[in-house]
Amino acid sequence: MKKVLFYISVLLVTVYVVAFFIAGKRVEGKALCGGMDVVVEENDSLEFITPGFIRSEVKRLGLSVDRMNIDDVDAQKIEDVFNAQYYVENAECFKLNNRRVQLTVVPVRPVMRVFENDSITYYINRKGKKVPASADFFVDVPVVRGNFSGKHSLRPEQLLPLIDYLAVHPEENRLVSAIEVKDSSNVFIIPAIIGHVVNLGAVDNLDAKFSKLKRMYSEVMPVKGWDAYDTITLKWNNQIVATKRNLKSRLWVQTQDIGGEELPDPSQEVAVVYSSDTSRVRRP
Predict the structure, then answer these.
(1) How many CA atoms lie within 13 A of 282 on its CB side?
(2) Residues 114, 120: Cα–Cα separation, whole Å
(3) Could you give all domains of the chain from N- to C-terminal order, each with its CATH number?
(4) Which pTM does this prediction carry?
């Protein structure tokens, strides 16, 4: 009889504990959210992105968690909406054990400023997200000009190899005041040394191309004159093609049907300089 009473007692205690646990979970599920904590990290460019600004955006975007049950808070939706905002590089939102919600925001990191068609200007980050430019918002990043809206146009983010190269090569970076794009095979740099432009071709083999440019500057231009050439083209292997200053636009490049390779304009006077690692540049 005592054993029966013991087993009954154990069973009743077990049922009570299980019922208490289930009831507790129901109460927890209906518990109100304790609020939202906002954290802004790695803000080295956009001073206006503060926790206060993010809280005001939470309300503007209809994402307030005030007076909501914690289980009804959609943290993934909050995260997705903020990741779509132009001023956000990355956002994460999750629920805490104390029934609060934390929203962490990393402000967007512009890598270049784009001027398009002389009337449109904006910044972009590494993913190509456009950031509106205004008088109240300035970031010191490389300037790029060109038409990027056409169906087959180069996308600004495709210039990242050049942007990244300049970022880690300060000597070359000091030579460049702006970047101008005609198409993927004709990317120009506007040098800090005025009087000419430099056609890099595609944004590849940048070490070799800038090495040729520096040789041109050190061995040819001091002899021929810094205003002797309109365009210096570095796109061909082991050659520097320097177009003498005269009639045509500096952005005019002739294309002939030889496998898509571009050639200098034959109607202009050009100086072809061959270079290698084993011989000096031959000046025309």
Answers:
(1) 11
(2) 8
(3) 36-107 (3.10.20), 112-274 (3.40.50.11690)
(4) 0.70
Q: How is residue 16 written in tokens?
A: 């009570």
Structure tokens at 246: 């005269």
Segment 190-237, tens digit of pLDDT = 998 888 999 999 999 999 999 999 999 999 989 888 888 999 999 998
Residue 205: what pLDDT?
93
